[in-house]
Amino acid sequence: LAQAAWNKEAFEAKSLDAAFGVIGAGKPAESGDVVITAPDIAENGAVVPVGVVSNIPKTEYIAIMIEKNPNMLAASFTIPDGTVAEVQTRVKMGQTSDVYAVVKADGKFYMSKKEVKVTLGGCGG
Amino acid sequence: MASPMRIRAAAKDGVTEVRVLMSHVMETGQRKDSSGAVIPAHFITELTAKHNDKVVLSAEFGPSVSTNPYLAFKFNGGAKGDKVAVTWVDNKGETRTDEVQIA
Amino acid sequence: MTLHSSFARAEKAAEALYDMPKFGNVSLLHMTDCHAQLLPIYFREPNVNLGVGGMVGNAPHIVGERFLKHFGIKPGSIEAHAFTYLDFVEAAKTYGKVGGFAHLSTLVKKMKASRPGALLLDGGDTWQGSGTALWTNAQDMVDACKLLGVDVMTLHWESSYGADRVKEIEEKDFAGQIDIVAQNVKTTDFEDPVFKPYVIKNINGVPVAIVGQAFPYTPIANPRWQTPDWSFGIQEQGMQEAVNAARAEGAQVVVVLSHNGMDVDLKLASRVTGIDAIFGGHTHDGMPAPTVVENAGGKTLVTNAGSNGKFLGVMDFDVKNGKVVDFRYKLLPVLANLLPADPEMAAFIDKTRAPFLEKLTEKLAVTEGLLYRRGNFNGSWDQLIVDALIAEKDAELAFSPGFRWGTSLLPGDTITMEHLLDQTAITYPWTTLTEMSGEMIKTVLEDVADNLFNPDPYYQQGGDMVRVGGLQYTCDPTATMGKRIDNMMLKGKRIEPGKTYKVAGWAPVSEEAKDSGPAVWDVVANYLRSQKVVTQRALNLPTLKGMDGNPGVAV
Ligand SMILES: [Mn+2]
Ligand SMILES: [Mn+2]
């Protein structure tokens, strides 16, 4: 594990377009075959479960981005042959934001997004 | 030294599901302590998972990943008793490897 | 006919009310959101229960006369009183108090006698809402539910006693008698189930699955530190998997015992297949008839059974050849004067209250006006609480959470400590005094308004709007997040975003706010003692925009 391999530029990107650019995604096409599972409302903004499934054949890479976070790229995954194109992790969210999943499959990039609300809380029936 | 990971790996219908809970502060570098000084960034940057000796997943993390990171993924194959090993490295060069047998 | 029948006529009507012929072969009784009310009480239904988007004009977002028309209820009848706020004070004097476990118990026994094998389902919000529940750490309600014969329950406010206490009750008190079900509660580490997702009970030879759905937003609406290792959420996929698993296990009837709130249940019913009925709670909507929702797999009935022990839902299914072919449903009002108290339950209640009687019966003040809570924006009880907070904490304005529980008092009633605790008894009762910028005040109002008026029910948390004392504003429920609240004024002056204001409040959910100030009941009790007589006060209500003709509001 060589630390130099870590894509510093991508993790320090300050806009979605910049992050897309650094990972070589350009303007990825929105695809219904990239499925994000995340809560509609975060129970805890510090621990928001996000899962991504890509139903596109030859998926080789999955990235999770949070538009309103200071570092929008949260994590990226390289999917070797024989590994299912499905990952789950948990991320921090400072405020309500779209969560993006970007997928590279057979050399092309695709994406989808889902809004996760971060609320102040304290109400009830 | 960093605390051990908790790893669960289970094979079912020809697919092995791996779930990992790491123990790490995942400090963003953007928080301040009570005296107003910036708390330096300290987070896992890279992770590799191997089934026996084959890499089945590699990942890069940024500071947006939650404290004590969680990761779940699946790979084809894997049999009861096989080894699954997970290694992470953080931005300070610390590293940790833990392994389990597939249940 | 004049507005209200005499009591004699009411008694006659009662025979018809509770004479419900048995139908089919599988019966389920449903109570929900009793909020620990062991004794009969008054409870006024809301005159504001707005629906937006696709919910306009649909159950449960209908009030008053339009409610009666929608459900075909005769004006002036017992049902009209039970289900609506219309002529509340006069009708309450005629028909008397509602609920109370001793009276509920009599009704449960009557229904179980006519429906052998019937189960009693409890939708949660059972352990919280009274002084005695709080002081006994929920033990009075736990014992009362065992005595009442509850078979299966799910959770919301129960969790505010802390995860350890809930598990202790499940494993010790409830063992072998009451099942807690909740498919959506998982551990925060490996997402392992915390409770059984469902149970299958055999009713007259028919396997019936009861799937549990705890309140999805517990760690947001209530303090997360009380259940730090549990996650909740709606978990649609988990629900579908639980339903499929129950069917695969042989269940011929699958019902969901839900604490989602009715709008969330309606959406869930349209997207998950294989559920015969969802018995819902949390939003405290007393619905006389189920809403029938079509989905890809067939039809699902969605009910909601009100609150405060006021109603008992009775569902009769006719199950033939392994499936539900027909049903009958009624939501029976529990009228204490028309149902004799069950002696065993009455004795239990007396015994359990005895050590606390002196504290409970302390007379704080007399109210000149009607005191109630329920309504989207304010109730007179809440107005009293915010007035008290402003006075006692020397604040410019006050916030009080939009809780839907809390009993009503009639004009001339004495306010006792027990009544005050009915509005305030929670495990995080601390009062707060905060310097808030005008911008932050707007953020708070917008945030809560979106929880209430988001057109997608999955983004709703099912409470009411935060109550504001001293603050005037306009609210457009149809606008988008961040644009609903406008023209915020304090004492005739515009709230300035950059200026700070002294804001009192209570029930803080953050862990840092633990023990932030004296308990709200002590603060309000001081105020009431000094007032002696509580005058009828005008409700501080927002000016509504875009709601003309909405059947969810009557003023
Ligand atoms: Mn409730
Ligand atoms: Mn509730």
TrEMBL record, chain B:
Q: Which Pfam families match?
A: SoxZ (PF08770)
So which domain of life are we looking at? Answer: Bacteria
Checking InterPro entries in the record gives:
Ig-like_fold, Ig_E-set, SoxZ, SoxZ_dom
Q: Which Gene3D superfamilies match?
A: Immunoglobulins (2.60.40.10)
- The chain positions of domain Sulphur oxidation protein SoxZ read 7-100
- The protein's name is Thiosulfate oxidation carrier complex protein SoxZ
What is this organism's lineage?
Bacteria, Pseudomonadati, Pseudomonadota, Betaproteobacteria, Rhodocyclales
